[in-house]
Amino acid sequence: MTHRHRVLAAVIGALVLVTGCSGAGNRGSTGGYVTANGAITQVDPADRQLAPILEGKDLDGKPFTSEAFAGKTLVVNVWGSWCPPCRKEAPALKLVSDEYADKNVQFVGILVRDDVASARAFNRKHDITYPSIDDYSNRNGLGFASSLPAQAIPTTWIIDSKGRVAVRIVSENLTASTLSGLIDDVQAGVA
């Protein structure tokens, strides 16, 4: 894919995401977010594409790069404190991030369309300790456009230990057991 095509894909992806998140003209949206369709997409190991390197400032203003977690399974969640499904899935993300902390798994949030103060309050309320990138425009999320693009907020990806996109979850009802099972499958090389 040429640089021009990548830029065009990123612009189109941004327009789709921003338009979708506005809730205007979308029968499936409420409260300013696009209703997720509940889809879980698993990619066969032979067909996986490299995930983008996630970079930016964390919620404390410190530099962040996903390269620091090379060799780990990454669980990347696009979220905002304003998003009702994000609030609903926070306990499941917290539970699984704690359970898998010693299993070579790192959780990372991509905070979109939100301010840092609200995000910090959200994380304190839900006792979420894994890092999030302050990424108002979702530049990092758009990096998945060539593999499995975000279709709603929240979207969660599981990236295998080789840095490849293995799973995309677009669901308002993400449970700890579903997420744990998917991580287990990725680590076992099944999904």
From TrEMBL:
Kindly indicate where the leader peptide sits in this chain.
Answer: 1-24
Q: Where in the cell is it found?
A: Cell envelope
**Where in the numbering of this chain does the Thioredoxin domain appear?**
45-188
Q: Gene3D superfamilies in the record, alphabetically?
A: Glutaredoxin
Q: What is its main location?
A: other
Q: Tell me yes or no: is Hydrolase among this UniProt entry's keywords.
A: no
* Domain of life (superkingdom): Bacteria
What CDD domains does this protein's entry cite? TlpA_like_family
What keyword terms does UniProt attach to this protein? Cytochrome c-type biogenesis, Disulfide bond, Isomerase, Redox-active center, Signal, Signal-anchor, Transmembrane
Q: Which InterPro entries match?
A: Redoxin, Thioredoxin-like_sf, Thioredoxin_CS, Thioredoxin_domain, Thioredoxin_ResA/DsbE_sf
Q: Under the GO molecular function aspect, what terms does this record hold? A: isomerase activity
UniProt-listed PANTHER family: THIOL:DISULFIDE INTERCHANGE PROTEIN DSBE
Tell me what this protein is called. Thiol-disulfide isomerase/thioredoxin
